[in-house]
Amino acid sequence: MKNNLIFQIGLTLIPGIGPITAKKLISHCGSVEAVFQEKKELLTKIPHIGPVLAKEIAQQSVLGRAEKEIDFMSKNNITATSYLDDNYPERLKNCVDSPIVLFSKGEFDWNQSKIISIVGTRNATSYGKSFCQSLVNDLSDYPVLIVSGLAYGIDVFAHKYSIENNVKTVAVLAHGLDRIYPTSHKNIATQMLQNGGLITEFLSETNLGRENFVRRNRIVAGISDATIVVESKKKGGAMITAKLANDYNRDVFAVPGKWNDVFSSGCNHLIKTNQAHLCNSAQDIAYLLDWDKNQKNKTVRKEMLNQLEKEVVVLFENTSELNIDQIKDSINLSFGQLAVVLTDLELKNVLHSSPGKIFSLK
């Protein structure tokens, strides 16, 4: 596995070979290791691989750097996931330019059923912050993973409000996992490791160039079901992310604002030109993405549940039913205490019990 990862990382380090060309090379040669074992003369016969790239591959000079990165990963509890792995984000697999390797820290399921990206201006107004807070609060009624870029403004507020609402949140970084940029967001990034995580395609010691942010934005757009632009000028990173999401045939939502508000001009433009759905609430997202189509009605909002009840409900995020023993294994309560919590959830019309002490969400 380690040897295979060395070749996967090494392939990303060869100048002139991006994700699209790398995937063509792997497909042509049969495996990523076979790419480095192929004769230079045969490599030059592969479309778009000339003598310069063939020489770079044949020299294998990048493999030493790849091995150094694997050592860094081992020392810092970093996981690498290849696009050839079964657990690679399924949504990203459908993007032709998705990364060959993703590096991650934290605990989250990037193939869970509902993933939303929230992006916006670095200069968030009180209107944008308020809407973002309300949006995340309402999205917490669903088993959703919220993705953003940890940037100033709307991005970091999306992460902050997710943590406050116990919603898992993931930041896509424009640099390696050896640092956090901006440094002022290091504290919230640390909190995210307990409530989501950090992902990137960049190696440690990567210089933070402007092009990195566009590469970061394509992951933000491609890894989710939909991108919500809360506030943006007509030009900026959020607008680039919205365009990329549209290019990937993902839904885009934009929050409308005043006609003369510069930080709503981008959102208003997206709506006016039919590049985004108008978004006034989380219910707009749920409706257009058919989230409620197969989801049973909830008559009790999460804020009406106490902490123990919320902890039980969260267990049903990725499963339709659980028996009392499975719930007990995940909750630090005696059977007597748990029975009281489960009874209260039944009375509140949140849980349904079946013979054999099997429970499911109503």
Topology:
Blueprint: H1 2-13, H2 19-29, H3 32-37, H4 40-43, H5 51-59, H6 63-75, E1 79-82, H7 90-93, E2 101-106, E3 114-119, H8 126-139, E4 144-148, H9 154-164, E5 169-172, H10 186-192, E6 196-200, H11 210-222, E7 226-229, H12 237-247, E8 251-254, H13 265-272, E9 277-278, H14 282-288, H15 307-314, E10 321-323, H16 324-330, H17 335-347, E11 351-354, E12 358-361
Parallel strand pairs: 3-4, 3-7, 4-5, 5-6, 7-8, 8-9
Antiparallel strand pairs: 1-2, 2-6, 10-12, 11-12
Helix pairs in contact: 1-6, 8-9, 11-12
Give the strand content.
5-15%
The main sheet orders its strands as 1-2-6-5-4-3-7-8-9
Kindly provide the name of the CATH class of the largest domain: Alpha Beta
State the total count of DSSP E strands.
12
Structural class: alpha/beta
What is the helical fraction, as a range of percent?
Answer: 40-55%
**Number of helical segments with 4 or more residues:** 17
CATH architecture of the largest domain: 3-Layer(aba) Sandwich
Radius of gyration, in Å, reads: 23 Å
Name the poorly predicted regions: none
Account of the protein in words:
This protein is α/β, with parallel strands linked by helices and 362 residues long. It has three domains: 2-75, DNA polymerase, domain 1 (Orthogonal Bundle); 105-288, 3-Layer(aba) Sandwich (Rossmann fold); 302-361, Arc Repressor Mutant, subunit A (Orthogonal Bundle). Helix content is 44%, strand content 14%. The protein is built from 17 helices and twelve strands. It has helices spanning 2-13, 19-29, 32-37, 40-43, 51-59, 63-75, 90-93, 126-139, 154-164, 186-192, 210-222, 237-247, 265-272, 282-288, 307-314, 324-330, 335-347, and strands spanning 79-82, 101-106, 114-119, 144-148, 169-172, 196-200, 226-229, 251-254, 277-278, 321-323, 351-354, 358-361. A nine-stranded mixed sheet has the order 1-2-6-5-4-3-7-8-9, sandwiched between helices. Helix 11 crosses helix 12 (237-247). The longest helix has 14 residues, at 126-139.
